[in-house]
Amino acid sequence: MNRTINCTRLFSFLLPVLVAACADAPETGPETQQAMPIASLNAASPGQAPPVAQAVTSERLVRARSEPHNWLTYYGAYDGQRFSSLDEIRTGNVKNLKVAWTFQHAPMTLMAAHPTYGFEATPIVIDGVMFISGWNGYVWALDATNGKLLWEYQHAVPLDTPLCCGNINRGVAVARGKVFYATPDAHLIALDAMSGDVAWEKVFGDIRAGETATVAPLVVKNLVLVGASGGEFGVRGHIDAFDVDTGKRVWRHYTIPRPEEPGGETWGNSEAWQRGGGTTWITGTYDPELDLVYWGTGNPGPDFRGNLRPGANLFTNSVLALDPDDGTRRWHYQWTPHDLWDYDGVGENILFDRDGRKLLAHFDKNGHLFILDRTNGEFVRAVKFTETTWGDIDPNTGAMTVHLRPTPEGTEIKPGPSGGKEGFPHAAYSPKSGFLYVPVIENTATFKTGPADFKEGQPWWGGDVETLDHPQSGALKAFDPATGREVWASSSEYPMAGSVLATAGDLVFSGQLDGHFAAWDARTGEQLWRFQTGSGIHSSPITYSVDGRQYVAIPSGWGGWIAGIAPKMMGAPRGAALFVFSLP
């Protein structure tokens, strides 16, 4: 809101100058230089990558777990476990990790929401080639052994794109010789994986209304699935599916039902659903055997004024189990009915089996770990993983009891709007240890209700939150999903807002907001190694191997919604670099 006011004042000041300059200028003038993309000026880019992506089929993605040397899809495999069976790097030798190579690319020219740019992507690695996205429309192909740039692409992002929470992107998908990328202004682009040239491009969001995109696409069978961002702008959330080869849209699933549809009665009036939120800005998971996609949905709008949307507000703050062929909903589970605290339910849904039962684990922003039966959405258990004062979830029934709500004068509530675990960074599950690992934020905020006059393309909070004057810290924690028992916790001075990677070397890796990238013993929580990257980490580590050598990669570059996640880090060093480590 303040940014809009300042820009208006600046424009008002400059307008007379610009008018005078134009009046004195000749009607025509010589063309000094033809406009061209910045990426085309990079002579170091040869513009060609090996044809490794040609052989990535939907069948191969289903079997991704059998290729531990690669990281074929967003979570490493469809199940969302973020686990690798590579074990060359293990507890006994992780202390010897050294930088193998780095890739850096600082922001160039003007860009949308420059102060909030960040490097949050999850790299994809296929047979020695890495594909990774950056901020402001960039996608790169790199040699995964040394970081050599093979090609780069940049999408032209309008400077006035109404980005809610940062100029960032969370990654790409690769299949059938194409790299799929969702742009900040909600275009889905298919790039030729060898050259980086555009194969097809489709628009799936309306930036005038505040719809943008930060999600990494998900390829399932012959479709590529994407979700839009912008829940704070009064938009209606949706998931879209496009044909991998042609780009034709096959289906769209709206997360907010019309009044006459199932769930429509949970909005209390005939208009609230049109601006209901429920955006889908984190990548889903997929069970090929059940043929179900599990996708999370965000908060309702306006965020803090629940009286404008009385009812449970389905299907916000939920997991949706969808048929990937046509987008129909098979079942749903709502983590936080009638959310008043911005506790998006978009976070990862981890699929695992235990005692012959097909389960789903979800660490929600509302501070609770949920375990569901993923065949039908049946509640199994819930347990707190951080302190909560807003309310409680009954561990045996899932029933919600609310204790504190936002008020006009302000109410202190735990956790703050970044949640007990922020919506983007992902937990991990190790089938070797049997534990779940989660990055935790310990924080408080003062929640206030306020005006909620809707204007298209403008933030629609219905209030405000104050976070700076409250204490904040974090932890990396391990939980036993069979019982909900906390196994260990490693405390952090700052909130933990980086994804977790678990490996068969009995290690877990994660980044920290003070710039450290670290490794912990997966059984005990002892920190065994760390490296200072120079900028806060809000991204997802991966591991892969080439010619028998294991690497661990992490993008470093603190950005996005800093004010909500860790406001005391607003002035911390900023950067943008991919660090890749290996043993000597």
Structure explained in plain terms:
The chain is mostly beta strands and 584 residues long. 5% of the residues lie in helices and 34% in strands. The protein has three helices and 38 strands. Strands 1-32-33-34-35 form a five-stranded mixed β-sheet, with no helix packed on it. The protein is globular and about 55 Å long. Residues 1-26 have low confidence and may be disordered.
Give the helix proportion (percent range).
Answer: under 10%
| Strand tally | 38
Instruction: Report Rg.
Output: 23 Å
Structural class: mainly beta
State the shape: globular
Q: How are strands sequenced across the largest beta sheet?
A: 1-32-33-34-35
Round the mean pLDDT to the nearest integer and report it.
Answer: 92
Give unreliable regions as ranges.
1-26
Number of helices: 3
Produce the secondary structure layout.
Elements: H1 2-24, H2 58-62, E1 83-84, E2 98-104, E3 124-126, E4 129-133, E5 138-143, E6 149-154, E7 173-175, E8 178-182, E9 187-192, E10 198-203, E11 218-220, E12 223-227, E13 238-243, E14 249-254, E15 285-287, E16 292-296, E17 318-322, E18 329-334, E19 350-354, E20 357-363, E21 368-373, E22 379-384, E23 391-393, E24 400-402, E25 411-413, E26 428-429, E27 436-443, E28 445-449, E29 463-466, E30 472-480, E31 485-492, E32 500-503, E33 507-511, E34 516-521, E35 527-532, E36 542-546, E37 549-556, H3 562-565, E38 577-582
